[in-house]
Amino acid sequence: MFKTVLIANRGEIACRIIRTCRRLGIRAVAVYSDADAGARHVRLADDAIHIGPASARESYLVVEKVLDAAHKSGAQAIHPGYGFLSENAAFARQVQDSGLTLIGPSPETMDLMGSKAAAKAKMAPAGVPLIPGYHGEDQDETTLGAEAERVGFPLMLKAASGGGGKGMRVVRSADDFADALAAARREASGAFGDDRMILERYLERPRHIEAQVFADSLGHTVHLFERDCSSQRRHQKIIEEAPAAGLSEKLRSELLAAAVRAAEAVNYIGAGTVEFLVDDDEFFFLEMNTRLQVEHPVTECITGLDLVEWQIRVAAGQSLPLAQSEIKASGHAMEARIYAEDADQGFVPSTGRIERAVFPNQNNVRIDTGVETGDDVSMHYDPMIAKLIVHGPDRESARQRLIAALSQTFVAGPTTNLGFLQALASSEPFADADLDTGQLDRELAAVIDQPEADDALLATAAAIFLFESDQARSKASPWDRPDGWQIGAAAPRSIDLEIRTRRERVFLTGVDGSYSVQIGGHQLDVELTRIKGPQLTAQIGGRTQRLIAFLDPDHRRLDLCVRGRRYRSLRHARFEGIGDAQAGEGRLTAPMPGKVLEVRVEAGSKVTEGEILLIMEAMKMELTIKAPFNGEIAEIAVAAEDIVEADALLLELTACD
Fold this sequence. Notes:
By secondary structure, the protein is α+β, with helices and mostly antiparallel strands. The longest helix is centred in the C-terminal third of the chain and has 19 residues.
């Protein structure tokens, strides 16, 4: 067994690996960039070594720096986690050549499975079903266009060396092919250093089912059952679960057997995931990920196994801890990915300091996170804050535990997708396990029911703002109590409150949980009682509801969880205007910090509504800035390669016919 393992990663996966190393008595060494000098994985590690500037291209992706850190630390092995260098065959080869052990498969296997085209060529002889498409070496644009016509539309463009939704585009007509190809190649080149593409028939409504496989160097290969990752947005997984609901035993058995054959066909060693698209009673090979998956905790929950421990033992030359007949599954598990992103603004990533982070601490709930209160969500890396994992005896109990655990989670600082996750987990399609991989992109509004705030909700939120203020500032003297008391009668207090698209000036009288609330000429009486911590009951209009309320440190934002939904309430400063968020609709600003990749227009250019003006890269995703109306470019404030902050002016557009 290894004495020291260097973890060539950051964030929650680095923290996750450290946890297992500590349990096994292995010294865990972290690496960090300038941006991560005080990060949680650095604080948890036994030792940590600086490897460069904030940019991943100058730190976490520099093989020489990682290897140098490993040698300095005295490590015998390197765990790459996922992302960064985890599926980089050249890195695996250099680790091997330097006398160290990579906790992962061989470089040869990575080479083979890192190319979707080569992987598919290997799968057919092994009896693994494939989607019709083009996986050839000829990458000339004319050839790809002709192959696209042969495969037929709609089709899927995929980066040959890709994963995680990068370099992927759905193309529905020949007219869209050239632009989609250029964008996919650009994104693939930036993410993987390889712009080769494969084409596949696009299945309109498939499920994404993947099998966890494990193999050792002694000839043993097993599966650890399957996961359903069909809840996706733009090819990014949102909620994963194990096992997959609704599969016939015949289909499940055939899929798992095919996954084992796929691993054996490429002489696989270590943890791997064989991904399939399931269409009715058929399944097709999608790809094989030669690393630990983000969603591995749901497999750990149903099997009771530690997959990182298995990885370490197999890399050390040991046999798999269990044979196939000894691996059992129990219950159902779900994982929700909590991101710093704004679901109401097209899921644009968010950045900033985490002023407060609250996670549930109870049985059957697991939190994998790389941040704590006071840490930063940086523009340089993936915006994941945490993974929330629950386990229950069956799918419905797991779903209810997921909803409850999400409602007990709060992050102040960056905007998060917690409300979106709660709405998705509470939705009818998710409850019925009736989601396909494209449904949220096609029918988001229909799946995610987001009711507007009614008077009762607005009154409750306003009362909670005052209630928390009263609790914090209450004193014995009536002159110091924040209740609007004056000689003769209490003066009403007002709050300028916004919930979703509704903004109102609300007037309240009362104190200590008992309030009379005036909204647009209507009066509602609200009685609040604290149960424990953020848990309250609110009695209003003859109805009492249990709710959970989190207030940020500066008392400007309230997250109110009620009936399985999360409502974000903003308390505006007195006299703050309700006008437009920016000076004019023609001022196009950066939605988040990032890098300008391409400026497609010049000052004085005439543009049409929807035309792409500029392309940015931020937090591992590509953003296109489009013309909001027909107009003329009045000013261009940035150039390609510029680094910009959030809300920085990019271009200014004046309207014209």
